[in-house]
Specification:
alpha+beta, Uridine Diphospho-n-acetylenolpyruvylglucosamine Reductase, domain 2, Alpha-Beta Plaits, seven-stranded antiparallel sheet, five-stranded antiparallel sheet
């Protein structure tokens, strides 16, 4: 960029600082650095001209209006825990961080929580629990991920097999549009079909259509105590068959799978007594009321034993059950210790889960890369985690090829390239293969209608 244009951008930033204050607008490069990347750690993140650490919706409006006036790209950012590059900074753009907007208000009468986007998922759960209520969506990173990010990607989690994903709990949104106007959608109503379903349009849009500044979330009565089944299998194929068989007759409240590599990674990272020799570990729970809970777990165990489970263990102790769930949540940080990661998030119809897992294993062998797999198996959503050596160009190239082949495999099985992490910047090349030209064209028309300048999170999804 020429010297004159750099000075021009700097002058424009000064007007933003004058409007919002230097406690809101971050301009020092060393301070900006912390807002450039998400959990993927992708090296291609750009350097924004500034970061706005918004305190309220009006700050977001002012920042977007400023960006629209000058044609500057805007990247919304939550906690930075994203896994698809959705909040990577754009060179010369403006990053708007919602990390200061953390307010939570619970209304027990309507069973809703009004939440600002920077609040952590765990904080919403805790606030709801004070009133005997529960916010179900529970990504594995629930302790460090924000509600705004959850809404942006339509995040899921371990209990989604029974309770659904983020969109099922969003009743209303305040959204700042690309021209800086503030839109209020929905409200604290369980049923509302007046007009187009615009609230749902923004859930999962990854900041490309607008920036969420407030959400009204549906809460439900506190979850009943769960009973847990842990079953080990000689192979992930057989474990996946057990998932399909169980799911055909009952709704488990959790159905998580770990393959042998992920089991051993967790044991290396945080020893928990898992069976290192197991080909796969299946963790299933039932929170059905009363005696039905034990009956469901017994039926799950019977299905596993019929398919040749090596060992089955059941417990009614919530703490013991949570220990196994914690082992599953520890998989990402545990596997990260094995090298640099490329994280997949592909899903297929549950009956095709065995085919997907076999195909992933074949790709790992052919490309000579390690691909541990953990999965929200009950709804067919898997997380193949491609491990590579970032200092070895050959290893990185093989991992990149495997990354794209896993997505192609999922599409070929009638599946999706992302079940909950979002398309972001890392998966957008594969999106047309899944959606097809007609749906992609319609998607672009929606984007152009809401963001005619194309300033909202450019490079994500599209």
């Amino acid at each position: 960029m020429a010297r004159g244009s750099v000075q021009k951008v700097d002058t424009r930033v000064e007007t933003l600082v004058a409007e919002l204050g230097d406690d809101v607008v971050v301009t020092r490069p060393e301070s900006i650095e912390a807002y450039r990347r998400d959990w993927t750690g992708h090296a291609s993140a750009g350097m924004p001209v500034a970061v706005v650490r918004a305190r309220r919706a009006q700050d977001v409006q002012a920042a977007v209006r400023w960006a629209a006036t000058h044609g500057i790209p805007v990247v919304p950012r939550g906690a930075g825990s994203g896994l698809s590059g959705g909040s990577l900074a754009v060179e010369g753009g403006l990053t708007i961080s919602l990390d200061r907007m953390r307010a939570i208000t619970v209304d027990p009468a309507t069973r809703t929580a009004t939440v600002e986007p920077g609040a952590f998922n765990a904080e919403v759960k805790a606030a709801a629990a004070e009133h005997g209520l529960w916010y179900p969506p529970d990504p594995s990173s629930f302790e460090i991920c924000s509600i705004g990010g959850n809404i942006a990607t339509n995040a899921g989690g371990l209990c989604c097999v029974k309770y659904g994903v983020t969109t099922d709990y969003v009743l209303g949104l305040d959204v700042v549009l690309a021209d800086g106007s503030l839109l209020t959608l929905g409200g604290p109503r369980i049923k509302d079909v007046a007009g187009l379903s615009l609230t749902k349009l923004f859930v999962g849009s990854e900041g490309t259509l607008g920036i969420v500044t407030r959400a009204i979330l549906r809460l439900v009565p506190a979850q009943a105590v769960a009973s847990t089944l842990v079953a080990t299998f000689a192979s992930v194929d057989t474990a996946a068959e057990a998932v399909a068989r169980i799911g055909a007759t009952m709704r488990a409240s959790m159905m998580e799978l770990m393959d042998q590599t992920s089991i051993n990674a967790v044991e290396d990272y945080q020893p928990m007594g898992l069976d290192r020799s197991a080909g796969a570990l299946l963790i299933a729970q039932s929170d059905a009321p009363g005696a039905a809970r034990g009956e469901e777990v017994a039926l799950m165990e019977a299905a596993c034993r019929e398919l040749g489970a090596v060992e089955c263990f059941t417990t009614d102790d919530p703490a013991e059950g949570e220990m196994f769930a914690a082992a599953r949540r520890a998989a990402f940080p545990a596997i990260e210790r094995r090298g640099s990661l490329m994280l997949e998030d592909v899903g297929v119809p549950v009956p095709r889960l065995p085919e997907l897992l076999r195909g992933i294993a074949a790709i790992a062998r052919e490309r000579d890369v390690e691909i541990p797999v953990v999965a929200h198996a009950g709804d067919g959503n898997t997380h193949p985690i491609i491990v590579h050596d970032a200092t070895d160009p050959g290893s990185e190239a093989r991992a990149e090829q495997a990354f794209h082949e896993v997505m192609a495999l999922a599409i070929s099985l009638g599946g999706t390239i992302t079940g909950e992490h979002g398309v972001g910047r890392l998966k957008k090349a594969a999106l047309p293969d899944q959606l097809g030209p007609d749906v992609m064209a319609l998607t672009r028309r929606v984007k152009e209608a809401l963001d005619p300048q194309g300033i909202l999170n450019p490079g994500a999804i599209f």
